[in-house]
């Protein structure tokens, strides 16, 4: 509490910014700059009321917003605590999970739980442009981030590629890098679909989470530089520990739309 009193910028009722927003912004800054560490308990609502000169209702509204942002969590009877920051991956370019996490300084380890040949289901066959029932390689891995299970991934590859991976150190290597550096296969683009689900018993057990907890699910189909489908995956991430981030540009959309209009006008003129 003393730390906050010494470092806290003044809130003011003269500002056009609501008082609860000022408090929320101050607390957010203290959490993000490390003043308050993950799992550290924050001052009580009454303590914050004294610090900020605001009612407990105002403080509670600020805390509620921070909880919705995932920055804090509450334990009834014990208090309010700082949440552990989520790992994230930018969806700006095609790269493997390990590539992205290692660049950010995380320790990565993959536990291969299964590596076998299976008959391609209708869905897998359609994605990889194969006939249903033909043999494909299925690889299941639990990805560990800083020694904690973060995701479970199911990868399908044409059998001639997947079988070669049996001789590769998959616990410590990224499949994308193996395909490019060891096999000389240039990767081009990937099609992604992302949604949410609840963890069933098996997934909860693998990721050490409660059954019914939120999971971020992705389907990713990766193509070679020549446009041939090569790698189809189901990726399941702990919803409480990971997020995807991306930046989108309105200007690019406008340029694209403008280009489309110009093309349409040109065609009309012709």
Describe the fold and architecture.
With 270 residues, this protein is an alpha+beta fold. It is built from ten helices and ten strands. It has helices spanning 2-7, 19-32, 45-52, 56-68, 97-103, 122-128, 159-162, 175-182, 201-207, 250-269; strands at 72-75, 79-82, 87-90, 108-119, 135-145, 148-158, 187-198, 214-224, 229-238, 242-245. The strands form three sheets. It has a six-stranded antiparallel sheet with strand order 4-5-6-9-8-7. Strands 1-2 form a two-stranded antiparallel sheet. Helix 3 (45-52) packs across helix 4 (56-68). It is elongated, with a radius of gyration of 24 Å. The model is unreliable at 5-10 and 260-270 (pLDDT under 50).
List the SSEs and their pairings.
Layout (H helix, E strand, L loop, with lengths): L1 H6 L11 H14 L12 H8 L3 H13 L3 E4 L3 E4 L4 E4 L6 H7 L4 E12 L2 H7 L6 E11 L2 E11 H4 L12 H8 L4 E12 L2 H7 L6 E11 L4 E10 L3 E4 L4 H20 L1
Parallel strand pairs: 3-10
Antiparallel strand pairs: 1-2, 4-5, 5-6, 6-9, 7-8, 8-9
Helix pairs in contact: 2-4, 3-4
> Main β-sheet: number of strands, strand sense, barrel status?
6 strands, antiparallel
Global shape: elongated
Reported by name, the CATH topology of the largest domain is Chorismate lyase
C-alpha Rg (nearest Å): 24 Å
Structural class: alpha+beta
What is the helix fraction of residues, given as a range?
25-40%
**What string gives the helices and strands in order?**
HHHHEEEHEHEEHHEHEEEH
CATH architecture annotation of the largest domain: 3-Layer(aba) Sandwich
| Total strand segments | 10
CATH-wise, what's the superfamily of the largest domain? Answer: Chorismate lyase-like
